[in-house]
Write a structure and sequence with these properties.
It contains 5 helices and 4 strands, in the order αααββαββα.
């Protein structure tokens, strides 16, 4: 299915040219000092303001993706595998793009798994563990599509995604990476979540 662009509004065009770095803003807000009540209030307000701005822009972008107002980065691929970039937010559709969920229900399973990912991100973010950062992530359900919008890690689009993974797996467990330094950061969070470390055999 070929990509056929719809008429793009001035707002969409401005979004394409925006230089706001959401990931930098979100991480900088979380790194603000909080040694006293005043600093905690300033930090919380900053996080809230940046998060609200990000969510608002992500919703607009997700709607524009579904409406066909944003060109995909990979227009030659089939629709469910297409990815989009608008206003420094990366968008993808809630499908089983790499067929990792084939035996569990395919697109239906992927649709549900995305919600689980967001709950996990929210949970780790609520722990506020020093040294552990999460991407700004928004799920938008619009006109029958589930769209995921995420802030962009600096340089991630210019390098191989697989080479950027230092802990865990992105291929459904076929390849599992580990890192001692990152593992130590996760250990602190795991204790709060009552998660026990376990060994992985094979991979």
């Amino acid at each position: 299915e070929a990509y056929v662009p719809n008429s793009t509004s001035d707002e969409m065009s401005l979004g394409m040219m925006s230089s706001r770095d959401w990931n930098e803003e979100l991480q900088s807000a979380r790194e603000l000092p909080q040694s006293n009540v005043h600093e905690q209030i300033v930090r919380d307000r900053t996080i809230f303001r940046v998060t609200c701005d990000f969510v608002s822009m992500a919703i607009k972008g997700a709607q524009a993706v579904v409406d066909g107002n944003i060109p995909p980065l990979n227009a030659a691929d089939e629709k469910k595998s297409r990815m989009y970039l608008w206003n420094n937010i990366f968008f993808s559709l809630g499908f089983d793009m790499k067929e990792h969920y084939g035996e569990f229900g395919g697109d239906t399973a992927a649709y549900a798994a995305i919600a689980g990912d967001l709950r996990g991100i929210s949970l780790y973010q609520s722990l506020d563990t020093e040294g552990l950062h999460t991407l700004g992530t928004v799920i938008v359900d619009y006109r029958g599509y589930r769209v995921v919008g995420q802030s962009i890690i600096s340089g991630i689009l210019s390098r191989d995604q697989e080479q950027s993974i230092v802990y865990g797996s992105i291929d459904n467990g076929k390849t599992i990476n580990s890192d001692e330094k990152f593992g130590a950061v996760l250990e602190s969070s795991s204790k709060k979540l009552h998660l026990r470390e376990h060994s992985v055999i094979g991979g």
